[in-house]
Amino acid sequence: MKNMNTPKNSSLENESNQITINTIATLIIVLLPILGAIVGIKLTLDSQVSLIDIGMLGIMYFLTMIGFDVGCHRYFAHHAFQTTTAVKSLLAILGLMSSQGGLLYWSVGHPLHHKLSDQPGDVQSPNLEGNDFWGKLKGLYNAQVGWVFKIANDGNDPENIVKFEKAIKDPLILKINELQLVWIILGLIIPATLEGLITMSWMGVFKGFIWGGLVRLFLVQQFAGTISSVCHMFGDRPYKTNDYSTNNFWLAIPTLGGSWHNNHHAFPNSAYCGLEWWQIDISNWVIWILEKTGLIWDVKKPTPSMIKARKLQNSSTN
């Protein structure tokens, strides 16, 4: 009997299968850290949390959040500075460990978030589902976590791939991005292995996996998500922008400065989000150290006169 599947049908079937696989993988990456957080709560209630657990959580959180904020966002999306192949490779790996979308999204898709911010076509906006309570709640969910399902299959689009390759122009970074799932898994294995070696116990392996792996991933996902959700609905707006972006002081530390989001939308290519001396921006400090050591250069930031001019522009439109 002849095979009735034409090459076109076979191609469509393969694409459909890939979409299903990508969606399932994304669902696992979202749900597994939630289960880990529940286990973490149980361990805490049972007084089974050690300083090693907390240290592993803190170190892994800091490294992967820097990878997300300094790497995926400020470097790959906004080209806010230049750096060496080694540094950008490390930032890429740490950023991918944060599970906040691949580098294809940040280099190709995220610029649309600024071009179409809080307008149809902005996959990260919380303000496109209506103004009633349920619309706002649905919008918050979309900006917090729902958007990762929308971009899960961006890598299947040949046009996106071409744009990505043109934007990156580095075969090593392209290869690193292809291994996104590997880096996420390594982000779970590394703390488990380290804590197991430190404590010389299988319980150490388990707790390292929970605290440095899953709980860390849960916290990174949630706090990174607040930049798109909370920081487009609640907070201060010192700069008038064509969207609803806001600044949130109380999120500055866990987001490493990403919550100065209205500043960011006012000066999107700036390596610095905290523009006032009192605005805590830990990512700024990391960038400053890297610049002083010569590991990065051509760091973009607005001058005091540019900031003043923008504020005058805002006041003149009130």
Automatic annotation (TrEMBL):
Q: Where is the Fatty acid desaturase domain?
A: 61-280
Keywords from UniProt, A to Z, are: Fatty acid metabolism, Iron, Lipid metabolism, Membrane, Oxidoreductase, Transmembrane, Transmembrane helix
Q: Name one GO biological process term.
A: fatty acid metabolic process
Answer yes or no on keyword GTP-binding. no
One matching Pfam family: FA_desaturase
Keyword Transmembrane helix appears in the UniProt entry:
yes
Which InterPro entries has this protein been placed in? Acyl-CoA_DS, FA_desaturase_dom
In the record, what terms sit under GO molecular function? oxidoreductase activity, acting on paired donors, with oxidation of a pair of donors resulting in the reduction of molecular oxygen to two molecules of water
Q: Origin, by domain of life?
A: Bacteria
Provide the protein's localization.
Membrane
Its transmembrane ranges are 21-43, 49-68, 89-108, 181-206
User: Which cofactors does the annotated protein need, by name?
Assistant: Fe(2+)
The topology of this chain with respect to the membrane is: Multi-pass membrane protein
- One cellular component term from this protein's GO annotations in UniProt: membrane
**What family does the database annotate?**
Belongs to the fatty acid desaturase type 2 family.
In its UniProt entry, what is this protein called?
Fatty-acid desaturase
Organism (species):
Anabaena sp. XPORK15F
Q: Write the gene name.
A: ablF
